[in-house]
Automatic annotation (TrEMBL):
This is Transglutaminase domain-containing protein. Gene3D superfamilies: 3.10.620.30. Residues 1-22 form the signal peptide. Residues 110-175 form the Transglutaminase-like domain. It holds the Pfam family Transglut_core. Keywords: Signal. It comes from the Bacteria.
Length: 292
């Protein structure tokens, strides 16, 4: 009887422990919490090329980017046209990697009929948008357990500064989807919140037959960690440092898919730091208690 009772207590303890672990596991099902405290101390230096830089002039002229967006009268129209262009120029294969990181080299690689992964879509789209006067950056999304997964730990798309809306917005040229909330383009963090709240005004602009609702369901688990390069210039030697936006209370992610160490990563909980206006200043400010 004593042994039976002890065994029941052990099983009960294990069950409660597993329940507590499940309840405390990070999830994107609820809106993630971030700081939006005013910035006071300059710490991170975001750098972007300008459209008149030689590299971007060459990209724009070689691929006729002005003609791609010539018929569009609105900022969103131009972004959509350029997204469709990248979508059609590149072919996706998540199992085939390429060492190329230069956008024009990636485009040349694609001309040979070779597929690329999501990261190449993100990088090419960022360069194309910047060449057309819209500062952009590749955005790396990572699941809450990205360090424990052996594969499918994240996704890469693009964030672009839309001066007309005075905000950052995401566009995914691999899927050709530009998420909007009540008709306004939104950032990755805003998308995470909208999905968690099942916001009725959430939709997506696309020029293809992309299934937007399916795309949102597929993307949602990756909307936990967000990181982007601090140096987004082209045709010059750039710094390899990145900035990761982490939810309040979440651990700092230092490993990706079990084996890839995240070198040169800086961390912040502040959306004000992660989302500066790139046309006002290249400096992102970080309260001393948050900077790492």
């Amino acid at each position: 009887m004593h042994k039976t009772f002890t065994g029941l207590l052990i099983l009960l303890g294990l069950g409660l422990g597993q329940l507590a672990t499940a309840q405390s596991a990070p999830s994107t099902d609820a809106p993630l919490r971030f700081s939006n405290a005013p910035t006071t101390v300059a710490a991170y230096d975001f750098r972007f090329s300008t459209p008149d830089d030689f590299y971007l002039q060459t990209l724009r002229d070689r691929y006729g980017l002005e003609a791609v967006a010539a018929k569009e009268q609105t900022t969103l129209g131009k972004v959509k046209a350029l997204s469709l262009w990248v979508h059609n120029r590149l072919s996706h294969d998540g199992h085939t990697s390429t060492p190329k990181t230069d956008p024009m080299e990636i485009l040349d690689h694609a001309l040979l009929g070779k597929p690329v992964q999501c990261v190449e879509f993100g990088r090419v789209m960022a360069a194309v948008l910047t060449a057309m006067g819209m500062p952009a950056r590749p955005l790396f999304l990572k699941a809450a357990d990205a360090d424990k997964r052996s594969s499918a730990g994240g996704h890469v798309l693009t964030e672009v500064w839309l001066d007309e809306f005075q905000k950052w917005a995401i566009v995914d040229s691999q899927w050709d989807v530009l998420p909007t909330l009540n008709g306004t383009p939104i950032s990755a963090v805003e998308l995470q919140h909208a999905l968690a709240k099942d916001a009725p005004g959430l939709s997506g602009e696309t020029s293809t037959d992309a299934k937007v609702r399916y795309y949102f369901r597929w993307l949602q688990p990756y909307l936990f960690y967000f990181d982007t390069p601090l140096d987004n210039r082209y045709g010059v030697k750039t710094m390899s440092t990145s900035l990761m936006l982490t939810p309040i209370g979440a651990k700092k992610l230092t490993m990706f898919q079990r084996t890839t160490k995240l070198h040169g990563m800086r961390y912040t909980n502040s959306t004000a730091v992660f989302y500066p206006n790139p046309l006002e200043t290249h400096q992102a400010a970080e309260p001393p208690s948050l900077g790492q």
